[in-house]
Design goal:
- The protein is an alpha+beta fold and 145 residues long.
- It has one domain: Transposase IS200-like (Alpha-Beta Plaits, 2-Layer Sandwich), CATH 3.30.70.1290.
- Helices cover 32% and strands 18% of the residues.
- A hairpin with a 3-residue loop joins strand 2 and strand 3.
- Helix 1 packs across helix 2.
- 32% of the residues are buried.
Length: 145
């Protein structure tokens, strides 16, 4: 992942990565669960604050803060290659990812959690199992700033 972002760590970032050709790979519940479990294994290896996430059928959103010496590029590169290995698939992701520093992290977290409702995958945010809004996964509390 040689993608360059002006800021690589020490700030809250909203990151999105898409599956190759936007194929709905994570519509398979086993793959969606593995996508989340891979995220937590990575967090144990390279600590970062995870404030929220959603694994949609064809993309993933993360709200996180990566601490130095790690970078968002290395972290997402490790995540994407690790999940390819875990799922034993030759190709899974589009190249690169999008990362932004949100002006309002709370609004972005709400957007992340509402993604499955807008896509008509569930009626309420807490009903979607592959989201931090479901209450099934541990995340850090987003600071009020």
């Amino acid at each position: 992942m040689g993608q360059r972002h002006p800021v690589q760590n020490e700030v809250i970032m909203f990151a999105t990565t898409n599956t190759l050709n936007r194929l709905p790979v994570f519509a398979n519940p086993a793959y969606a669960r593995e996508a989340i479990e891979c995220l937590y294994r990575l967090q144990n290896l390279h600590p970062f604050l995870l404030f929220g996430f959603v694994v949609m059928p064809d993309h993933c959103h993360f709200l996180l803060n990566v601490s130095a010496p790690y970078t968002i590029s290395k972290l997402l590169g490790s995540y994407k290659s690790g999940l390819i290995f875990d799922l034993n698939v030759p190709k899974l992701w589009q190249a690169g990812f999008d990362a932004r520093i949100p002006k309002n992290a709370h609004q972005v977290l709400r957007y992340i959690h509402e993604n499955p409702v807008h896509a008509k995958l569930c009626e309420r945010i807490r009903d979607y199992p592959w989201s931090s809004a479901s209450g099934r996964w541990d995340v850090s509390t987003l600071p009020f700033v």
